[in-house]
Amino acid sequence: MTRIKYTFDDGTTETLPLTDVVVNLQRQYAAMAASSDAGLRAKGSAKLLQLAEMLVKKESTNQTNRKNASKGRPAAKCPLKAKIIQAMASYRADDASFKDFMAAWEVGTIDGLRLLPIDSTKPIKLQDEYLIDNENGDNDSLKPYKLSTLKNKLWPEAKIHR
What we know:
The chain has five helices and five strands; from the N terminus they run ββααααβββα. It has helices at 18-33, 38-71, 79-93, 98-107, 147-160; strands at residues 3-7, 13-17, 113-117, 129-134, 143-146. It has two domains: 3-71, no CATH class; 79-160, no CATH class.
């Protein structure tokens, strides 16, 4: 149970359950809303509405969290990324450089993955971005990857997967 601690000017403290505090606020706001003073009645009604909206939002958040918790962890977002890392890992195991890996990939397929240029007017060596084609016919074919992503993110990650 969540508790709230009050510290008073004289140094004394009082700890109350948060539910008691909320119930007391509801009573206070209801008394304000039932007042004969129109201004106090409007403020009390507005506070009751504000408190109700906070409770609804909190319950909605709790339901969403419960629903998401029951789903379990998602699978890998991109199986193509895992295949690229696996292909790179086989080259890293032979102590090849990234440049050697890319040179081999430019002329042929590696583990069923083909490197295609995005801009056909430039030579493949001068590309900043490539299309990776999974020739094994999976549904994740033809995804774009930047050279910097291949070199700076996936290539170092392939060292871990040796």
